[in-house]
Amino acid sequence: MRLDRRFRGSLYAILAALVLTGAAWLFADWSKAHLDPDPWQEIAADLLMLHGGAAMVALMLLGALVPLHVTRAWRSKRNRLTGPAMATVNAVLIATAFGLYYAGSDALRTWISDLHIVAGLALPGILMLHVWLGRRSAPDRGGAPAISSGDRGSR
Questions:
Q1: I need a labelling partner for 112 at 20 to 30 A (CA). Which of 29, 42, 118, 119 fits?
Q2: Reduced 3-state DSSP string for 38-89
Q3: pTM, entire model
Q4: From the CB of residue 50, how many other CB atoms can be counted at a distance below 10 Å?
């Protein structure tokens, strides 16, 4: 169920941007409390804006993944553990991002934030495992065509 290299590259790039901006925001947020808070407040706000913008692009790419990759892979009975794990982690990230934006309770917001951070930091490892297992289980390792938006399965 290999994706078109341009789509795959875009997806990897936006996920990397999300992980990097999220991790950088964590450092900036920590720095506000432990270092001079003035510059770190602005840096944290800018990183959060970049993170949110990247998340919007990621939502579009994840939506495109469903017909291009997820449904076809599920029908072929491949990656039945890490595929749902990827879907679950991404769903948790989406739901907690929504909660962080709209949660009114500080206690709830802290819990949602912690869950979002854990899921975000876990995502790269789960993605690497998913890709590795998917490539290992490929029936034809060398000549399998990439799935592009123009491909329509008959299944």
A1: 42
A2: HHHHHHHHHHHHHHHHHHHHHHHHHHHHHHHHHHHHHHCCCCCCHHHHHHHH
A3: 0.84
A4: 17
Does 142 map to a domain? no
Which residues in 60-91 are b (16+ Cβ under 10 Å) and which e? ebbeebeebbbebbeeeebbeebbebbeebbe
Q: How many domains does the chain have?
A: 1
Q: Which domain holds residue 114?
A: 5-136
Whether 150 is covered by a domain: the verdict is no
- Among 153, 151, 152, 148, CA closest to 6: 148
In 3-123, the DSSP E strands lie at none
Identify whether 95 is part of a domain.
yes
Tracing tokens 């450092």 back to the chain, one arrives at 27
15-51 pLDDT tens trace: 999 999 999 999 999 999 888 889 999 999 999 999 9
User: At 26, which amino acid appears?
Assistant: L
Is there a domain that residue 149 lies in? Answer: no
pLDDT of res. 104: 79
